[in-house]
Design goal:
heterodimer, A: 248 residues, Ribosomal Protein S5, domain 2, 5-stranded antiparallel sheet, B: 230 residues, alpha+beta, OB fold (Dihydrolipoamide Acetyltransferase, E2P), Ribosomal Protein S8, Chain: A, domain 1, flat
């Protein structure tokens, strides 16, 4: 965030380093049901980010003292692979990944109908295969598709995206350079049906106007991602139906 | 757990999809927000006599009273056994609920860890405490045979309309088959026909959403069985 450089992140025409405009998303690819042995799974690519999420459960909650007799708990593990960044990432949980696991679990808890499964636990594992800024958003996007794929009852699917500021301009979906040398990074997740915000963090500085503008930009991008998430799930199961017929 | 195939239009819905603006009653797998009915899980939309519900495509088995299930003994206590019935919760089987007279502390003589039983769900309370029983006709310990596991949402397809599918598999392969509501299926017979029966069951699971399945399963079994008889 605080890094300084002579790099021109946004040129005079308003075009960014990777050729996008200020309010443009990177390419997004979402696939549901990619893993055989998990109850539900999803794979998400947002630009150069590659994320895989797996869901197990509801199942018996293991450290017994974490059980809640009124509802299920959601346990989330966000993990970056050692090769996901250019300097090797030292494996294992660290302060950052514990934080991200916690906020993602809390965001998911707001949509999952946890009261249907008292004393149980729903386990979400998010693996970052390749990182290029915005992995917590990609992780949450993947995790909510994986939850739906696992057949877990939930109110809605959560899309998530980051907005930020670089070279004094409000930008959507920051990439690595904009994240490192920009002025602010704001990851955001919403429940599309009600526009409730379920995840919001800010790193850096923005004025009130810039912030309002950024949120507006992020919310409309979230709705776009939401359509992709729904499409991924429907595509997966529509394909399963067709497969059966053509197998004949 | 009788499920009806209703309309030819089988629409896949995902959590959050709008199902109905009003007029229908909310059924299984749905929730109501501002008077509108939304899907709460991934599945196929089903409209049946004024009720919209979701037939789930995925998901864990949730025990319901009266369900016949196949369970594995995973733990033994002095007056009960703990049965794994493929649900998110363990199911205790009390000594009063078995057809034998068991002395206190003598439980391991009757059922050992790893053995399979047929059981009925006696009750499930709101905190998901389960009790199972073996005191009903036909319930027993399973000896021999093979267990096939499928997704519990495909069980009704394996059974078929009023048992047509399972009856056909039984007749054609000459196997003894018991289908548990929890997606576990016990198949017993001579080795080759068990393999065919399990193959047919796996085929049903894979192609559960397609039409005319009974015919194709019949063909499948026919093609596997014939060579041996000739």
């Amino acid at each position: 965030m605080s890094g300084q450089s002579d790099l021109e992140l946004v040129n005079k025409k308003g075009i960014r380093l990777d050729g996008r405009k200020a309010g443009e998303l990177r390419n997004i690819k979402i696939e549901a049901g990619v893993l055989e042995n998990a109850d539900g799974s999803a794979y998400v690519e947002i630009g150069k980010n590659k994320v895989r999420a797996a869901v197990y459960g509801p199942r018996e909650c293991h450290p017994r003292h974490l059980q809640d007799p009124t509802k299920a708990i959601i346990q989330c593990k966000y993990n970056m692979m050692a090769f996901s960044v250019s300097d090797r990432k030292r494996p294992g949980p660290d302060r950052r990944s514990v934080e991200i696991s916690k906020i993602i679990a809390e965001a998911l808890e707001s949509v999952v109908l946890t009261e249907l499964y008292p004393r149980a636990s729903i386990d979400v594992y998010i693996e970052i295969l390749q990182a290029n800024a915005g992995t917590r958003c990609a992780g949450l996007t993947a995790a909510s598709v994986a939850l739906a794929d696992a057949g877990i009852p939930m109110r809605d699917i959560i899309p998530s995206i980051a907005v930020g500021k670089a070279d004094g301009k409000v930008l959507l979906d920051l990439n690595k350079e904009e994240d490192n040398f920009g002025q602010a990074d704001v990851p955001l997740a919403i429940i599309p049906k009600t526009n409730e915000i379920v995840l919001l963090q800010m790193d850096g500085n923005m004025t009130r106007e810039e912030f309002d503008n950024a949120i507006e930009m992020g919310v409309s991008a979230c709705h776009e991602i939401y359509e992709l998430q729904k499409d991924a799930l429907k595509r997966r199961y529509a394909a399963a139906m067709k497969d059966g017929v053509s197998d004949e | 757990m009788e499920k009806r195939d209703a309309r030819p239009a089988r629409e896949i819905v995902v959590p959050g999809d709008l199902l109905d603006n009003g007029g229908s009653r909310p059924g299984y797998g749905t929730y109501v927000l501002d008077g509108k009915i939304y899907a709460s899980r991934l599945g196929v939309k089903n409209l049946f006599s004024g009720t919209v519900s979701i037939i789930p495509l995925r998901g864990r088995y949730m025990p319901a009273p009266g369900d016949m299930v196949l369970g594995m003994i995973v733990d033994i206590g002095p007056s009960n056994w703990l049965v794994d019935i493929n649900a998110p919760y363990p199911a205790p089987l009390h000594v009063n609920e078995v057809p034998w007279k068991v002395e206190f502390g003598d439980t391991s003589r009757f059922l050992k860890i790893g053995e399979m039983i047929m059981a009925k769900i006696l009750m499930v309370d709101e905190s998901m405490k389960i009790q199972v029983t073996m005191n009903d006709s036909g319930l027993r310990k399973l000896e021999g045979g093979q267990i096939a596991e499928i997704s519990h949402s495909k069980v009704s397809r394996v059974i078929g309309k009023s048992g047509s599918m399972i009856q056909m598999i039984k007749n054609m392969t000459d196997c003894r088959i018991f289908v548990g509501q929890n997606g576990r299926i016990w198949v017993d017979g001579d080795t080759d026909s068990v393999t065919v029966a399990v193959g047919a069951i796996k085929m049903i699971e894979k192609e559960a959403q397609t039409s005319n399945l009974t015919e194709r399963v019949k063909e499948f079994i026919g093609s596997k069985i014939k060579p041996e008889e000739e």
